[in-house]
Design goal:
Layout (H helix, E strand, L loop, with lengths): L15 H14 L4 E3 H8 L15 E5 L4 H10 L3 E3 L10 E8 L2 E9 L4 E4 L2 E4 L1 H6 L11 H11 L15
Parallel strand pairs: 2-5
Antiparallel strand pairs: 1-2, 3-4, 4-5, 6-7
Length: 171
């Protein structure tokens, strides 16, 4: 559930250590989850320099199918994550936040217990792009990122955004 972006920092790169740790977690959890949000756009895009304007890497948004959630929780605990309570816990039984703080830094996982349509890219399942776009303004709040805007344009023209340079500013 992204925070509003800071336009003054849009051209700054993301911390490479944070990216390395985040991607390692995504890949470790890949058998159980479907990746959403900024990390989904990250995997859909071709290799690129990670600038903050492209997509959000503050947390990792994940979907897990309801029957698989009980399998995922022990994996998260074994990987050092613990449950963090949020304001959404009072209104939803389908959202859970997990965090880990260690020498590698802070990793936040927002886990949505729900089945979503997915495609596989770079060895991970990501939310199908047209479905992912419907989450902005609700589950994901950073709608102004370049990847989101480019994907909207591409899909409106009948073009899949997967693997397209437009997701990271290359037209």
């Amino acid at each position: 559930m992204g925070d509003p972006r800071n336009p003054k920092r849009a051209d700054e790169p993301w911390n490479p250590r944070r990216l390395f740790v985040g991607e390692a977690e995504v890949r470790a959890l890949a058998p159980w989850v479907t990746v959403s949000g900024g990390w989904a756009w990250h995997f859909m895009a071709p290799p690129h320099v990670e600038l903050k304007r492209f997509h959000d890497h503050k947390d990792v948004d994940l979907f897990v199918e309801p029957p698989r959630f009980p399998e995922l929780v022990p994996v998260l605990i074994a990987r050092g994550f613990h449950r963090v309570w949020t304001r959404f816990d009072a209104t939803s039984t389908h959202f859970h936040r997990y965090a880990r703080h260690d020498a590698d830094g802070k990793v936040l996982l927002d886990v949505f217990v729900r089945r979503v349509p997915a495609v596989e890219v770079q060895g991970v399942r990501v939310v199908e792009p047209s479905t992912l776009l419907t989450f902005y303004g609700d589950l994901h709040g950073t709608e102004g990122r370049e990847s989101v805007l480019a994907a909207r344009d591409l899909l409106a023209r009948g073009i899949s955004p997967v693997g397209r340079g437009e997701l990271v500013g290359r037209r």
